[in-house]
Amino acid sequence: MSDHQDNPIKAEKRKKLHALRAKGVNPYPYSFDQNVHVEKLVKEYSDLASGEKKLETNFRVAGRLMTLRAMGKASFFNVQDQTGSLQCYIKIEEQNEMDRASFDLVDLGDIVGLEGYIFKSQKGELSLYVQKFQILTKTLEPLPEKFHGIQDVEIKYRHRHLDLISDLDSRKVFVTRGKIIKAIKNFLDKRGFMEVETPVLQPLYGGAAAHPFTTHHRALDMKLFMKISPELYLKRLIVGGFEKVYEVGKNFRNEGIDRTHNPEFTMLEFYEAYTDYNYQMKQFEDLVSSVCQEITGSMVINFKDKDGIDKEINMAPPWRRLTVMDGITEYAKINPDDVSALDNYLKTNSGKPIKLENLSTGEKQMKVFEIAAEPHLWQPTIVMDHPVDISPLTKIHRNNPKLVERFEPFIACMEIGNSYSELNDPEEQRNRLTDQESKRGVDEEAHPMDEDFLHAIETGMPPTGGVGIGIERVVMLLTNQSSIRDIIFFPTMKIQK
Fold first, then answer.
1. Number of neighbouring beta carbons within 10 Å of residue 217
2. Backbone angles phi, psi at 286, to 5 degrees
3. Which range has the worst mean pLDDT, 144-148, 384-388, 469-473?
């Protein structure tokens, strides 16, 4: 790009780049021998007295130049690395010719390498006395004018690098996300689970009610689907003899985008032989509450409600148990077995036209529960015992043939997971999938028939409890972020024209 195509600031930065090269300075060296991060310096030397120096140790610090205050022949500036920001002090006449040229042509946003010793300024701020100065990356694009977090969400999500540079709180959220995933894996590893991987590209999709993304494999000339759930593959591993397996991986669902949904998201699913949904309720509570304690230092957290007001959530087990039918009775004030009452409630409260003739009784019950009960489930609640016709992979409830042994945990009025006593009766499983297949003309999210999966079930799967947890939902809760786009590095966005 030539200078006349740049805005004035970018044109000036490009001139400085060319000037550096003219002086024999390489503005893009291959490496820098960094030997310390800001966080370690702050931790080890914060107790220095004002004016005290540590001359015996030279530190090599690298990072992005964020502020610059010239004071005659000396300057103060701040450098930010992955761990934090550090004030630096430089006297121009003490630098050699190349370093002086580099400092004269440096801009905010440039990545620099520094060598010097630590001291406390007279104002009491920990600082690096710079003895050597080097530009490691000369930037052309100016940073946002204000370093208090990007206010334009379009820029924040589309150019995440700018958000991470200018908002350390945003960066901290993503650091915490990594810690949460690590804590979850450690919990399962300690309980004897094995981490596994399942295919992202699948000849048939299954394991959830969702619209898949489709693609085409040229060499095999076949249609493939991107994974909406790893469930059917993980169950094959249980059939194969592994008793405890889990996967943390990406799922893809070709659906809407809102505060809690992104087409590409991270799920944890784990399956444990010889257990049922009762056992997994307790394990789910233990997992989420222990991760909460490890990450936040408490079982009690704050999370913003729909009005943006922080409200308290207590993660400590045991959580409330609420059956779907009791929830309908309590919050909708109707008999869940009265179909006409369900119809009337939906006509009055759904907020949009609804084709009741296309819904089974179980589907109507779940829609009523969603409208009437879910907005009240702020504290952790295990919603359990769902209608059989919406759960094709779940065992019939041992005490009620109209229900299945399934639970969905809700926190802050948000579903964060799903769990079953997994169906392992091959004849019943075939009947359920056959019924699902028959609905595909009117319900695109109905589960397709999968003969390979049925072959595995017919080979014999032991009694098994399975659990799925939405990683993004947990991260939102433990970082108090009300939008999923704030805890995904690169959320799906419409292409700019």
1. 11
2. -60, -45
3. 144-148
**Which helix (H) or strand (E) element contains residue 276?**
none
Domain carrying residue 38: 3-143
Name the domain count of the chain. 2
Residue 110 sits in a domain whose CATH number is: 2.40.50.140
DSSP H helices, 276-327, are 277-296, 324-327
Task: Give residues with Cβ within 8 angstroms of 466, minimum separation 6.
Answer: 231, 234, 235, 269, 270, 271, 272, 280, 419, 420, 422
Predicted local confidence at residue 229, as pLDDT? 95
Q: Tell me the one-letter amino acid at 169.
A: D
With tokens 């359990």, the residue in question is 384
Instruction: Give the percent of the chain with pLDDT over 90.
Output: 83
Q: Is 338 part of a structural domain of the chain?
A: no
Q: Which of the four pLDDT bands, split at 50, 70 and 90, describes residue 149? A: low
Residue 147 pLDDT > 50: no
The beta strand positions in 177-335, using DSSP E, are 194-195, 201-202, 214-217, 222-226, 244-252, 264-273, 300-304, 310-314, 320-323
Q: Are residues 400 and 254 in the same domain?
A: yes
Identify residue 172 by its one-letter amino acid code: K
CA–CA separation, 377 vs 253, rounded Å? 25
Paired tokens of 96: 């050699």
One domain, residues 309 and 393 = yes
Cβ contact 183:235 at 8 Å: no
Placement of tokens 């004018």 in the chain: 145
- DSSP letter, residue 395: P
Q: What is the pTM of this model?
A: 0.91
Long-range own/partner contacts, residues 252-259 (CB < 8 A, 24 or more apart): 252/200, 252/212, 252/213, 252/226, 252/227, 252/228, 253/208, 253/210, 253/211, 253/212, 253/213, 253/228, 254/210, 254/211, 254/212, 254/213, 255/210, 255/211, 257/491, 257/492, 259/482, 259/483, 259/484
